[in-house]
Amino acid sequence: MKLIIKKSFIIYLIISILSIQNNLYSISPEEKIEDFGIISLMYHRFEENKYPSTNIRINDFKEHLKIIEDNNIKFINPKDFENELKKNKLQRKILLTIDDGFLSFYENAWPILKSKRIPFILFVSTREIGAFNYMSWEQIKEISREDFVEIGNHSHTHEYLVDESNEIIKGDIQKSISIFKKNLGKNSNFFSYPFGEYSNDFKDIIKDFGFKYAFGQHSGVMDETKDLYELPRYPINEKYGEIKRFKSIVKTLPFKYKNIYPDEKYLLQSKNPPNVKIEFYENIQNLSQLNCFSNEGNRWRNSKILFKEAGLLEIDISEKFIGERGRINCSLKEKDGFWRWLGIQYVISER
Asked: Which CATH number among 2.60.40, 2.30.29, 1.10.10, 3.30.43 corresponds to the domain 259-348?
């Protein structure tokens, strides 16, 4: 819970700072937004107000839905996910996701989504199903019958699997898949990494099990250039799911890049701090005007950046990342109050 509060708070601060800084730059009228991408939102609890780090108040949730509807943003059906990534790029879109399968989702949010037929993915960890304060298999089966609902796989145990051996990870995922097939007749194409943490080995395991898409918890907007096994999402909770911040999130755009180095997001101490480089696509306007922030040395700061050559950005991380996660966020102002957003998250190993 503490980690989610910190991440949401930092995203809020950086959004505010970068929005002010980037407003200094002008965008020519003829420049057009050619791809709005897909914004993915992640919720957990609904109206469980004693858990503010993972909760959203139901009135705020209703207001979020209203903002989306008022701005003619399309809720995409998970069944059309990859097609929506590649086509209809001038349409603003949102993918709604809910993690963990808490009972409060079923009691407080599900009736709203059902009445409006708003599509979503519900990611569940199979060990917790039927436990206190979690949904039962009967409730999950009920909502899974709707054609706008996808029940996604969130592992079996929801432990910090990224720190475990490949054998333990495989055993955990295999068990969740077996339970999915027993209760729902099939496994999902969608996976959500516990705590949003993954390594290249973890990604390969998910691919080998036949999943088509996997989500983290790093911020950003999805588009067809993103790795389908490390898709970004914006965490939404009570304290930092307030309306002003939410309105900023729905005006973010994809930041398209070819590669991020190092591509391994599980960072050993011998590789900390990393030599971070981002290779962008050539057609991004005003790329030199971007800003980046990082939490190196356990303190958020404006990062030193340098374009070594056209489209190749080097981010100078001079101090080690401290704690469990190292984060970098970059932003670039676009026209009409929109801005491109790119979040990178490294899991910091104790080894």
From this structure: 2.60.40
